[in-house]
Amino acid sequence: MAYPETRLRRLRKTGALRSLIRETTFGPMQLVQPVFVLHGTDKREPVPSMPGIERLSINHLVEEAGEVFESGVPAVLLFGVPNDKDEAGSGAYDDDGVVQMALRAIKEAHPDLICITDVCLCSYTSHGHCGVLDTDGEVNNDITLEILAKIAVSHAQAGADMIAPSDMMDGRVGAIRSQLDQEGCSNTPIIAYTAKYASAFYGPFREAVESAPEQGDRRGYQLDPANVREAIREAKLDDEEGADILMVKPALPYLDVIKALNETSDLPIAAYQVSGEYAMIKAAADAGWIDERDAVLESLTSIRRAGADILISYYAKKVAQWL
Ligand code: PBG
Predict the structure, then answer these.
(1) For ligand 1, is residue 199 a contact (CB within 6 Å)?
(2) Is there a catalytic annotation at residue 249?
(3) Predicted TM-score (pTM) of this structure
(4) What is the pLDDT of residues 59-87, one digit of tens each?
């Protein structure tokens, strides 16, 4: 008796048949590389919890952006590491802020590289929360919305191709959309961190941008890891408010959320393999416990299989080179 599966076995061993019947593929074109930018010149600062990832001053970032583009990865996601912080995070919309200056420099050197910017207050506020605080220590949603909209406009005017609000305030997509439209940036799309969970996997990132909250945590505004229907509701709201792309974050622990949004929304979906996901693979690989390349490709394939169109990963450039 010949089993259908057995008939395929011999050909499956040759890469060609494996490729012919492979259900999930991705290439450099689906990837986005997150990058960290510092003030100053000629600075490269390693992020200790993310070996292989550095915070770069603008001149080095421009070189790095060139390498990302050369590798075939079409986009970077830009995070600023400001020198100064205050209660209201006002450095975030400074025209001479580190992100705004970096945008102008990157777009001048590599005009075809897509620059996405993270819009949030946490690395710009002295208290480390993603919004402005009232005297009782609670985040003031509505005042924060005005500031976020200002940040988005200042990024768009400095050359950002797409705005990615990661603060999780209510109504932020609508507030940013209407301000962008009013300020002549109606063609700048918004990639909304729709399903951003209150996750332990952001630890290394908070070291990279020095944004850990001084007091309390982000559970008031980020999603509870136990909930998936809440993510679907957030996706509907973001869609109604004018989001162009939805994001799920972290990625690997939330494959079911990616799938749920893929099935319930017709917007493109991005998934963010976050700093903690990177750090886990890296640490195990550096210890010789897993094969780095195989583990990364398997993780990204799974994220894609769950339904993500866009993969945001600290491994993006590396993956493009491997492929
Ligand atoms: C800012 C922000 C965070 C990340 C992206 N934007 C961290 C947080 O909410 O604490 C995490 C990215 C990563 O871990 O790689 N709000």
Answers:
(1) no
(2) yes
(3) 0.93
(4) 999 999 999 999 999 999 999 998 888 88
